Fold:
Amino acid sequence: MESVMREGLPSAAQMLLEQIRSRRSVRRYRRDPIPRAWAMVLLEAARWAPSAHNRQPWRFVMVEDAHMKAQLARAMGERLTADLRQDGVPEERIAEDVARSYERIVSAPLAIVVCLSMQEMDRYPDARRQTAERTMAVQSVAMAGQNILLMAHALGLGACWICAPLFCPEIVQETLGLPADWEPQGMILIGFPAGPPREKPRRPIEAFTRWIEAPA
Structure:
């Protein structure tokens, strides 16, 4: 299958495919700071993502300050603790999960809080279309986030998208002092890798694809 996919591909396409295939979620980082010019390149990649109506509903909070990362990680950890206790999870496991989440956030030289704003999106009087409009905005933000992940990989950085802010958006907003319309969707942790990432298999294309072919 791999040889079939590569056959006849332009060199630029082969290089891009290799970048996509070799990207992995990296969760352990060296302490070296991310150069500001590189951080700006990440944002430049993000802003060229496709978006619904070209409204570009993404917002990014670049958190480099160690104190703020720790404050944010603690606040989210308190919510995680409460949620897991409500689920009946044993205290020992709760402590492990919260500690692991805290360490990942504070150890990353750069944490990008990825937010959604509906301010420039269309508004509809009915719930059906308004729900679709919001989904379009969420998709747009996710595509911008993917651009950041791919650019980070191209720069030799390690990155990992975590969804924790989605479970406590009001806590993230309050901790970071965000505008009311900046709705946290996730966080991208970025740094120079401290070690090789874990290898995880991908399902074969045939397992998730249906072809509707043109008539012969």
Q: What stands out?
A: The chain is about 50% helix and 10% strand. The first strand starts at residue 58 and ends at 63. The chain has a mean pLDDT of 95. Strands lie at 58-63, 110-116, 158-162, 183-191.
